[in-house]
Amino acid sequence: xxxxxxxxxxxxxxxxxxxxxxxxxxxxxxxxxxxxxxxxxxxxxxxxxxxxxxxxxxxxxxxxxxxxxxxxxxxxxxxxxxxxxxxxxxxxxxxxxxxxxxxxxxxxxxxxxxxxxxxxxxxxxxxxxxxxxxxxxxxxxxxxxxxxxxxxxxxxxxxxxxxxxxxxxxxxxxxxxxxxxxxxxxxxxxxxxxxxxxxxxxxxxxxxxxxxxxxxxxxxxxxxxxxxxxxxxxxxxxxxxxxxxxxxxxxxxxx
Length: 255
Hints:
By secondary structure, the protein is an alpha/beta fold.
C-alpha cells in the first residue's frame, strides 16, 4: 500500500463505501506481510517514500519470485538488485513488465512513471572496469525518479579527461565517484565542485588493493571536504543516498 492507496482507503471509510472492519482488515498487512522466509515491509513506501528493495544475492529463486508476486499486488515499482539472468527469467514468468539491466545486475518492474528531477546526479568512474558498480548506482537513482548523467573512464591516470568535462561536473547537484585501484577520483572531484560527492570504492585492482580496501581507505582519508563514502562495491547504496540528497534539493527549490 502506498500513500495514494491509503488516502483512497480512508476516503472510502469516510464516504461509507467501506466498513471500519474491512478497513482494519486491509490495514493489518500495512506494516509488513510475513511469508515465513521473508517479511515484506509494505509500510516503507509511506515511511521513506521508496518501496522496499529486493537484494537477490544469496536468496533462492523461488523465494525471490514469492516476494515479487506479493509486491506486484501493491502496484509499486520493484527494484531487485544483484540479480542473475536466471532470476530475471523467473521474474519474467510472472510479469511482462520486468526489465533486466545486465551490467547493473538489476531487475526493474515499472508499474508507474515517476516525474524526473530537475537536479542532476552525475555518476563518474575512474575506469571502464568500474562501470558495473556505477551502473548499479545510476539505474537505482533513475528508478527512484532522478535525472542521471554518466561520465565514465575519467580516472586520474589521464586527468585531462575529467577536467575537459568540468561543465558537466558543475551542473550536478550530487556526484557519485566510483573508483578502484587507489580510489583517488573522489578526492579530485571533491576539490573541484560545490556539491556533495558520494565515493564508491570498488574491488577493481591488483593484488595489493586487497579487494577494494585500498580504495576504501583512500576515500575515507580524503583531504577534500564534502565527501561521504559507502561500502566497497555498494553502487545501490550510493544511488539511493544520492536520490535522497537530490530530492531534498528539489523540495528546496519548490519553496
